Amino acid sequence: MSKSVDDKQDVIIETRNLTKVYKDFWGRPKVNALESLDLEVRRGEIFGLLGPNGSGKSTTIKLILGLLFPTSGQALVFNKEASDVSKNERIGYLPEESYLYKFLNAEETLDFYGRLFNMSAGRRKQRVRDLIKLIDIEWAKRRQLKEYSKGMTRRIGLAQALINDPELIVLDEPTTGLDPIGTREMKELIVRLRDQGKTILMCSHLLADVQDVCDRIAILHQGELKEMGAVENLLSVRDITQIQAKGLSEEAQQQIRSIIESDQADLVSMENPTTTLEDLFLGIVRDSKARPGYNRKRERDQQEPVAAAETTGASDESVDSEDES
Amino acid sequence: MVVDPSEFISYGEWLANALGGFVVLALVIFVAWTVIAFALTAIRNTPGQAVSIVGGGLKRAIFEDFPRSSLQRTIGMSRLAIQEAIRNKVLIIFALFVVLLLFAGWFLDVQNDHPARLYLGFVISTSTYLLLALAMFVSSFSLPNDIKNKTIYTITTKPVRAHEIFLGRVLGFGAVGTVLLLLMGIVSYVFVVRGLDHSHTIDTASIEWDEETGLGTGFTSVDSHHRHDFLINRNLEGEGPVGVTEVAQGHSHTIFRDGENYVLGPPTGDLLARVPVYGSLRFLDRYGRESEDGGINPGKEWTYREYIEGNTLSTAIWTFEDLSPEMFSTGPGGDEGVLPLELNLRVFRTTKGDIEGKVRGEILLVNPDKALPVRERYSAPIPFEAEEFQTFQINIDYNDIRKQNPDTAELEKVNLFQDLVTKGSLEVHVRCRDHAQFFGMAQADVYIPAPEGSFEMNFFKCYLGIWMQLVLVTSFGVFFSTFLNGIVAMVATLSIVVMGISSGFIGEVQSGENPGGGPIESLIRNITQQGATVELDMGETATSVIQALDSLYLDTMESVANLAPDFPQFNMASKVAYGYDIHLELILKQITTTLVYFTVLLFAGYFVISSREIAA
Ligand SMILES: Nc1ncnc2c1ncn2[C@@H]1O[C@H](COP(=O)(O)OP(=O)(O)O)[C@@H](O)[C@H]1O
Ligand SMILES: [Mg+2]
What we know:
The complex is a heterodimer of chains A (325) and B (616).
Chain A: H1 5-9, E1 11-23, E2 29-42, E3 46-50, H2 57-65, E4 72-77, E5 80-81, E6 91-94, H3 106-116, H4 121-134, H5 150-162, E7 168-172, H6 180-195, E8 199-204, H7 207-213, E9 216-221, E10 224-230, H8 231-235, E11 242-245, H9 250-254, H10 256-262, E12 267-271, H11 277-290, H12 296-301, H13 314-318
Parallel strand pairs in A: 3-8, 3-9, 6-7, 7-8
Antiparallel strand pairs in A: 1-2, 1-4, 4-5, 9-10, 11-12
Chain B: H1 11-44, H2 47-65, H3 71-87, H4 92-107, H5 115-148, H6 152-156, H7 162-196, E1 208-210, E2 215-219, E3 229-233, E4 243-245, E5 254-258, E6 261-264, E7 275-278, E8 280-284, E9 306-309, E10 315-320, E11 338-343, E12 346-349, E13 359-366, H8 374-377, E14 382-386, E15 392-397, E16 402-404, E17 411-413, H9 416-420, E18 426-432, E19 437-441, E20 446-450, H10 455-481, H11 486-510, H12 519-528, H13 540-563, H14 573-578, H15 584-610
Antiparallel strand pairs in B: 1-2, 2-3, 3-4, 4-5, 5-6, 7-20, 8-10, 9-19, 10-18, 11-15, 11-20, 12-19, 13-14, 13-18, 16-17
Helix pairs in contact in B: 1-2, 1-15, 3-7, 4-7, 5-7, 5-10, 5-11, 7-10, 7-15, 10-11, 10-15, 11-13
The complex binds adenosine-5'-diphosphate and magnesium ion (MG).
């Protein structure tokens, strides 16, 4: 994973050997929430952390934001230590649940967070108006947040994360609590933000979220990194070719092999079939239950032949893609 | 009223002394923080990393976080605290206060000798307790609630610096408290003034006139549960007062003519801000020689007071400066008038016997001008009797001041300011007449109360004192809440207040003035049923070990208690209630103390918050 100096500037988040062990009051280890995580998030991408509940996604995010201190290893954001407050100028964070002050209304909330960025009164006013419009909450902007529904709270939570027009947006389970339309809108917004050049780190246990919007994903399970790469690479099954054709006669079908070889058919598509993320995901979970400590990615990195046939299903076995470039 | 001896120390001197204490306070906290931070980091990581982490933290504080403080952010945090307090309905406290006052109108003893003191004592202490309790509560629970509700996540992931979180809370709650206190102060003032306001009528027909002098006497009507004797001079012409009533319930009224009738003005003399003229104190020993080491200390009493022995030449001498005839005289030329002397002598008896009886003493007024012949300097003794635990005022009528004529040995009337006062300076000598009895006294125990100063100003200064306590309590509350949960933080804040109040007591045990020794010794005495004043019957070694342990414990306790601000210093209710002007220097000392604690806690709070793992 060596990179040039140019590359370095495009690395927004970098974790090195990041490890977190939650300890009890007496300092005895309680939960190994994250183990030796190495990852990089690059400028302009949507990076997804995927994993079942309790797999360490929120822990990773909190370590990156400096809300938690690593047990060992390091998290760097914009090349600064996670504990450095000044990095926060360029970050927006939507927590797992929108932990906002219930006694403020939407305008007061956004104005308050605007002040924390030292924004001038005029700029704040403008920003608050824009964001309230963006999250479509105009009609309720004077109501105290304690009267808000979960979806509305989520939206105002997102607005507060965007108040400073951040370069890096960190979203912890952005779609939980949203209805299907809300989810759709949230995903579109995330993509739009990426298209504006922002970098997004999000985590979710919902496969569909990640599959739809993320450029690259990392799969966590019980605090361990199981898989990481570009979504299309992770999902393509290389040793199977899927052909879809229209209007082939019986005869032609019998001759399909030769027709393809001679390249004369009306070829609609010819590609590796993709497994669903769900399959991949379940496979990983099954794998690591059966073989604790097993790391698909490491295995792949070492370019060893997959030798899991006797313990895993065929579809898993077939998942084998190149490392992300 | 016991006046803290430290009040006689000027601000400059006090600051020079206190500066050392402040530096120690700051150092103790700084070293404690560094050691704790280092130990915790060393446990979590390696000692080597601990050095770089703790060092890095310090560097960041000095070079990044504090220089990058932002007023805007601090205002933002303060506004949030204000909104939080208001939405938590803290203003209810004000409603509660008003209700308490309304009830107090019925409950307070209307027959009291000094309704003004009662009213003032009530409103001031009610304001103080309500406000401080509220401050303790609000400040201790706010940050822990933020952490519990995780709203703190959206704060610490913004560019807010740790000290701005502390500052915002203290300023915000301070602002709300200030508004509350202002409201309480206004309502209190109105309550006291309105509560005391009353008038009486004089039935003209009932006045008994002395035809010769034209002076009339009688009683006013009974209003507000009392009446006054009065004296009217019917020969006085014009708009001005024609008479005055006697003092009842701590006040009197001026009497004016209204056609054929006489009417009373509003009550006066109950809401005062006298500026007590204090003198400096020195002692003569039992042979009449100037005493180097003050008075005698006959018992194991606390050394606030020193003693003079009865029936010896042992004398306490107060030297008053800057006296002028205008301060006391009523007649022209300083012929008429009284020199009021307030005495608060402690009586100490060595002989059993007439415990109930009074102890006799005498006062001599002495011209401090040593150039004059001794016989010319001394007035004739003015006798008085003192009772235990009694403050009493001796009004020395100018007409009663006599001096012995050296030639004829006759007592002759003298003029106070012409014959005894030199350049505004006068010595007052106090002696005890009774054999084997002692008078104990401190500098503040004899003074001349001069009518001075504005009561309103004094009242305001008193509330300023409450305000500073508010700032202190809020700062401590917020500081403790940076690392303790709400209830524990509140208890810790309460203990600071209690320690601040009781640090004097620990000092007393320490210096052996509270007999019975420290905790271990007292425990043994308790178990073995040995009295507190006899030597401990334990064997020498055991006794000294116990006492060494005790003194170690007390030393520790004392230094901890000394870290707490001296809260009684801020409580000036008795001064206002008793009508003594609050000296500006006292306020200055309080402001300094408050600022120092606030600053130290701000830094301490910064380090705790910034080294705390918020989401753990
Ligand atoms: N503050 C904490 N103290 C102790 N254990 C925690 C704490 N926060 C999370 N954990 C544990 O750490 C593991 C990872 O949690 P988390 O990162 O929240 O998972 P995710 O966000 O992927 O659902 C879980 O087992 C969880 O119970
Ligand atoms: Mg989570």
